[in-house]
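User: Quick sanity check before I run a bigger batch. Here is a single chain. Can you write out its predicted 3D structure?
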Amino acid sequence: MTATQKHSDADHQALTEQFFQEMEEQILGRLQREAKSPEGREELLRATGIKDAHLLDELGKLGITVDGLLALRLFPLVLVAWAEANADAKERDVVMREAVRTGIDEDSAAWVLLDQWLVKRPPGLGVDAWKRYTHGVFQKMSAMSRKRLVELTKEQMNEVAKASGGHLGFGRISSREKAVIRQVIESMNHL
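Assistant: Done. Predicted structure follows.
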């Protein structure tokens, strides 16, 4: 392969990545406009029964529509990925693998939101929105179901934390990651 071909391939790759990034930003912008709209709020209210106007506003600011609501279930995994200075590729892979296991399709609003949260640290209001939404969900669940969801979330967060730590990527969870996991679990247990 000549130097010109390598340069051409690199240019093509950069243009392709730029195209998909711009496309994703347009989709995210559309989701945020839709989520903030009166129609989007009404649809979210109908689908979830959320009566808390402040929570609906927070979800709108996060770009969460009915289609993207499932992303909130995995928000704790995103928090663990960002426990260190950045969310790295290995952590992202684990979060997105868990997204697939949770039933999130790659072409869904929830996928776009998760992907965006892993590229750019989600705003602080995301934690409050997650807590308040989870509190509402927990009120409708049995004690056993709540316990199972807390255990599953803890297992998933540990998998994200282990993705880039330790020897050859196995075994070590940083003190920051441990602190985030502990805070999330404590929060879930006191909802």
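DSSP finds ten helices and no strands in the chain.

User: Great, the batch can go ahead then.
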